[in-house]
TrEMBL record:
Residues 17-102 form the PilZ domain. The lineage of its organism: Bacteria, Pseudomonadati, Acidobacteriota, Terriglobia, Terriglobales. Transmembrane segments: none annotated. It comes from the Bacteria. GO terms for molecular function: cyclic-di-GMP binding. It comes from Candidatus Sulfotelmatobacter kueseliae. Pfam families: PilZ (PF07238). This is PilZ domain-containing protein. InterPro entries: PilZ_domain (IPR009875).
């Protein structure tokens, strides 16, 4: 049995498996505070212990460190992150600080890992 049969086939599954931290679906409101402009609002798509992706309504510069604010089931989070990539309105952010927010993010990811593996048809 090859690796593809365990994790599915296709580039999407291969891409997810090569990440440093697995990502988990998470849809919550997010506020992004760029250095020289007003708050940008949007909603998250997924989260990992090292970053988060979100759909934003306004452009944010790639390479800038921004402040993010969002609410997780285990608490509100305020964290600084580097804007790593953009694909249309979807942005990828990498967390750049270690803080109490990282503890909440880590615990949330572990909770989502269990919750989403229960609902994943590949694990049935």
């Amino acid at each position: 049995m090859g690796a593809h049969s365990q994790f599915g086939t296709g580039p999407a599954h291969e891409f997810v498996e090569t990440r440093r931290h697995p990502r988990f679906k998470l849809e919550v409101n997010i506020r992004v505070y760029p250095r020289n402009s007003a708050v940008v609002r949007g909603h998250t798509v997924d989260i990992s212990e090292s970053g988060i992706s979100a759909i934003l309504k306004t452009e944010v510069p790639i390479g800038e460190v921004v402040r993010l604010e969002f609410a997780l089931p285990l608490g509100d989070v305020e964290v600084h992150a580097l804007v790593r990539q953009r694909n249309a309105f979807r942005y990828g952010f990498q967390f750049v600080e270690s803080s109490s927010a990282q503890d909440i993010i880590g615990r949330t990811c572990r909770h989502l890992a269990v919750e989403q593996s229960v609902h994943d048809p590949r694990t049935a």
